[in-house]
# Entry
Amino acid sequence: MPAKKTAEQTFEQALARLEQIVAELERGDPSLEEALALFEEGTELKGLCARQLDVAAEKIRALTDGSPQGAAEGDEAD
# Structure
């Protein structure tokens, strides 16, 4: 199990743990019960990563849509 709860992890931490889970499952070492627990954790991590990516994409859209709140100082057209 990871040191932090899934919801408390950064994107990078969640992705690294997800990669570990995939590697463990691909090796085929875990028992069925362990594999199911890893799969469940992986599903939660995938959801966390997807939500964090959605938030980042929304921030990028806000910064690049030309709206006043997204424009940086000095970027306004003369």
Q: What stands out?
A: The chain is about 65% helix and 0% strand. Residues 6 and 44 are 7 Å apart (CA to CA). Helices lie at 11-27, 32-64.
